[in-house]
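Deadline looming. Please check this record:
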Amino acid sequence: MKFRGKIIDVACLNHFTRVITTISKLTKMCVLRLTPLNLFFVLSGKVANGGVSMWCELSQENFFDEFQMEGVSPEDNEICLEVTPENLSRALKTVQNARAVKLKLTSKHCPCLTIAAELPTLSSASRLVTHDVPVEVIPRRLWHEFKEPGMPDFDVSIYLPPLKTMKNVIDRMKNLSNFLVVEANLSGQMNLKIDTDLVSVSTHFKDLGNPPWGAEGSQQGGPSPSRDPDAMARTRVDIRKLQQFLVGQQVNPSKAMCNIVHERVVHLILLHEDVSLQYFIPAVA
């Protein structure tokens, strides 16, 4: 197994660091899947058991000036590594003004993702800074756990309101309850609600719009064409998991969407021109 990548463009390095930092806010550990064309950051929580899951996909050519890898075999040309994204984020933040940054899979006292940066100095010479981020190589027999999740057979798909607005609302609501009901319909309306013995609070959004992909009906993974556009699909979730998703966002997406499987799961999608991030929050009873 071999992996080596090089980033020269400062804007690409900053963007890559923001993506890693976002992931570090969502999970302490995740799996980095390397393929010849893409990088994937995967959190494979068992939604059925109450765990969140995440799938983040990056096109390597949009970040790396050089990218070389050899997987475990020609037939299985992939590498799967368990990483701590916080360690990766911390290392990248120290080399933001580098002339070039190299990422390489190395074997020191343990397998590592080594980040080597060429930093400018006041003289003509450059300074080389190296960070070794420990990783764990995931064996081939476990790869099936880290494949792309299928699009859920959702009841409603809707565009999200501005993420900063949504975050401000949830920051206030979390002081009143541990749980939040997310509900939406096919008429562009979304409500965020908490309901306790002491207080009931709702925030309403309208005219958000609905993505077109569900229009063909449930065979495309979308809602049934006979569904009442004003009927609300709702799911009760752990408010801290939704807040965690919103607090960490540094991707600055061009589109942000939410799919709701009634009383089962909230599926959040952020799309940037070269990054996609999916986050699944299961329902709580």
Remarks:
- The CA atoms of residues 119 and 125 lie 9 Å apart.
